[in-house]
Each structure stands twice: as structure tokens, then as C-alpha cells.
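Sample intake — FAD-dependent oxidoreductase
Collected from: Streptomyces tibetensis
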Amino acid sequence: MSRDTDVLVVGAGPTGLALGIDLARRGVAALVVERAGALFPGSRGKGIQPRTMEVFDDLGVLGAIRAAGGPYPVGVIWQGGERVGEHRMFDAAEPSEDAPYTEPWMVPQWRTQQILRARLEELGGRVAFGREVVGLTQDADGVRAEFASGETVTARYAVAADGGRSTVRGLLGIGMTGELVDPHPTLVADVRISGLGRDDWHVFPPGDGDGFLAICPLAGTEDFQLVAQFPDGTAPDLSLEGVRKVVAARSHLAPESVTELRWASDFRPRAALADRFRSGRVFLAGDAAHVHSPAGGQGLNTSVQDAYNLGWKLGAVLRDGADPALLDSYEEERRPVAAAVLGLSTAVHRGETRRGEATRQLGIGYRESPLTRETRTRPGPLRAGDRAPDGTVAGVRLFDAFRGPHWTLLALGDTQAPDLGARIPVVRGPAPAVYGPGLYLVRPDGHVGWAGDTAAGLPDHLARFGQG
């Protein structure tokens, strides 16, 4: 099969764009295609969790993300036109040297996608809009995608990042197992509203048979995100007049206070996990692989981290000559994470747990991965497979050292580091308390892949990834 590109990425949401960025900076030819004529216009996934902030730091977009958004406001509870209480949406956590980002950052999804697209284009990549995949075939050498226009594209690998109703997943015949988290229809809309302060997240509890109404100012914009539940099962009216009626019925605001409707959608919150994350040369990522309730702020973040996990592995196989069997580890690592996050999102939705340490996603790791090697005789709290914390070693900030598509070796304390050549930078110096002495090989996705008291076995480990 002749090839037009190395990797075909289907879907230009946060998942597909993040993957496109990661591949582009590795010199992997990738084409991102999107069935729509433009990027998604709504705010839906508006919360960037701390671990994703670290990922965005590495991908070169954190400055733009921080400039485009802001911290989450305090929730103010209204009743009868009076403020009757406050509610913090997330448990507070102080930043530290090893975890500089500890609070979620609010950026409407449409703006996040604009930033990711700009970064992709800066790296020489592009998005081809109006490309609806209608057919997919593959053989031992590659994948062939057919579009509704009659055009075709061939690639060595393909990634389905085309959302919860993934066409590619359907063409592959991969099932999705899950449940409704909440049977009640829910309206989400981006609106302009007058007469409502932008310093608070306004919450109107349910009453008289109506569901709740929440109106949150979207940082960096003039818009609010409106969410309303319909416990009577009524399908929400997505028109401006329909939204005005909901606001007037459930709050002290007049209908005309809603001055503009910019985007609206309805859904029933559900949790579902694809039965497989791979079929031959095609991978599922993001909502194509797992669908979450939005309550925990986990969906977009888990999706971006799918891309971050898969990108370096595709690069290792396509550019560094690693054994293609390395790609099996994508499902082995990410599917258990997705399953756990689905449970967390559902628990948050049902009020069984708070948005706290787990929702920040800093504790996600791969200790049980076939790629992980812990060779120390007495490992400390930080183990191979864990996220590599930030810190300062001999004047070098670790996140600065990790930034980029390379591996990094930390030689901390009195441990001697081998010469690994110019491809793998080595940081030497006193051991931060969060690490302790030893050798730590940090993967391109910021996880400790190998840890040891000596370098015995390290060269062989690196050879698995084309780094020998």
C-alpha cells in the first residue's frame, strides 16, 4: 500500500490536535482531518486539570492557555433572588516545587482548540476540514481511509479521535460498554447575559419540579456557560427563546437578560469504555475510547493524555526504529487509566466524592506497565511508573530539562551516570526529597520509566525504544 502520510488522525478536537502537535515535533508526518468545516464552537470541556497543564507546558502551549483563561470562581447559591451560600467547586491545594500547578484552569474548549491548532501550524502541521471518513480498510502495511468526497488517504497508522459517536470505531466494529450516569436530559449553552456578576459561578438549586440551573462566567471571554437539568425527561429547547424560558423560570433574572445564544447542545450524562483501544494499525483515543460525565472535569484531560501517551510511542516506532510491539503498550497503559477515571467522574456526578486530589490527575501512573522497570533494592515513595515531579537540581528546573520530545536521565545524589550520548540529556546533582538518590530515566511523556541504584540494565532498557 502506497502511503500519503505516516499517521492519519481523524478528528480535530483537543485529542487529535494534541497528538498532531506531538507527532509534528518528532518529525512524524501526520494529517489531522475533521468532518466539520471548522473547529468545535462550544465551551463544553472547559477545565484544564493540573496534570494537563504540565502536558501543555511540554507541548509549548501553556503560556497561551494561561493567558486565555483563569481560575475557577466560587460557586454562589441563589434562592428567591438572594444569595444564600457559597460552594467551592474544587478542594484547595497549595502549589509546591514538585507540583507547580495544583488548581484547575478554566478555558472554554473552543479557545483551547484554537491554541492547539495554532501550535500545530507553527510546527508545520495542518487540519484538513470537511473530510468525513466513510470507509476504512487496512492490511499488514498500512491503513486506507475513504472520505465522503471520494478522496482517499493512506497512512502507516491511523488514530480515531472523532468523539463519543466515533465513525471510525463503528467501522472497526469495536463495541463500547457503559451506562447512563444520569437519565435526565441536560442542556449546556454558551450565552451572553446582562445583570449577572462575572466574579462567581451562579447556582440555582432545583425547585417546583424543575432541575438545577448553573451559570458560570467563562474566563477570558464575555460569555457564560449555562447548564440546566430536565428531570421530567423533556427534551431541552435549544433556541434563544427556549434558553430564556429556562433562565426566567429557575432564577430571578428576566428572560431578556439573556441577550445572545452562541452555542447550545443537549445530552444525557453517561460513562462508557471501548472494548478495545486498538484494531490492527488503528488506535482509539479520547472520547472515541471513553465517554465521561462532565461533572469531574476529566474527559478532555484524559483525552489529551491519551494523545500524549501514544505520540511518543508512534514516534519511537516510525522515527527511532523501535519494535512495533511497543504500540501494544498504549492500550495496556491507557485503558486501565480510562476505566478508573470513568469511575471517578461518575462518583463526582453522583455526589459520592469531591473534586480533589484524584481529579487533578497528578497521581496517574504506570507502575504495572510492561514498559516500567524498578531495579532499586529499596525504592522510596517515588517509583518507576510514577509521574516525574518538578524540582530544581543544581540550578536546573526539571520541567525545563524534560521539555521536548526526548528522554531525560536524572543522576541524583552520589549515583554515577553512564554516557548515553547526546540524544539523552543527563541532569546531575543533589537529590530533591521527593526523588531521593538514584538514577531515574524519565520518558518523553514525563513518567519515570526506569529507576536504579546503578546503571546496570539501563542501556538494554533504552534499546527497546530505539535509543540504544
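Post-analysis note: Residues 71-97+183-268 form a domain with the D-Amino Acid Oxidase; Chain A, domain 2 fold (CATH 3.30.9.10).
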